[in-house]
Amino acid sequence: MSKYTVAGVSKLNGEFKVRFAHDLMYVKGLSKAGNTDIELLEAPSAMEKAELTEWLKTTPLYARPEFKEAIDTRSVMYTKLAKAKAPKAPKAAKLKKVKATPAEKLAEIASREVVTA
Question: CA-to-CA distance for 79 and 115, rounded, in angstroms?
């Protein structure tokens, strides 16, 4: 999964959306596409989307009610996706019953005591 170093929120067609980018130059693309109220922040390190949405909750952007709703919505979505893609625990190995080889059978027969009456 891809990691991003920039995250924030912008408004497009009256709806606030969480945005992720690799650098702050993404602002130019957002404004060309018609986004307004663009607020992007550099993350302390490269993170996946689920981690970044959780990190956004610790920033001043989360204090704005209109941003808070968009961040919360995406946080729930990305957390569910991250859990769904998490590797499952390996299953326990099943033991298969193995028959003795002919050499083992011969050794077993030879080791038996012969009883004579």
Answer: 73
What secondary structure, in 3-state letters, does the chain show?
Answer: CCCEEEEEEEEECCEEEEEEECCCCHHHHHHHCCCEEEEEEEEEEEECHHHHHHHHCCCHHHHCHHHHHHHHHHHHHHHHHHHHHCCCCCCCCCCCCCCCCHHHHHHHHHHCCCCCC
Instruction: State both tokens at 23.
Output: 């650098």
Dist. CA 90–CA 77, nearest whole Å = 26
Query: Residue 42: what residue type?
Result: E
Boundaries of every domain in the chain: 4-85
- Is residue 99 pLDDT above 80, yes or no? no
Tens digits of residue pLDDT in 10-63: 999 999 999 999 999 999 999 999 999 999 999 999 999 999 999 999 999 999
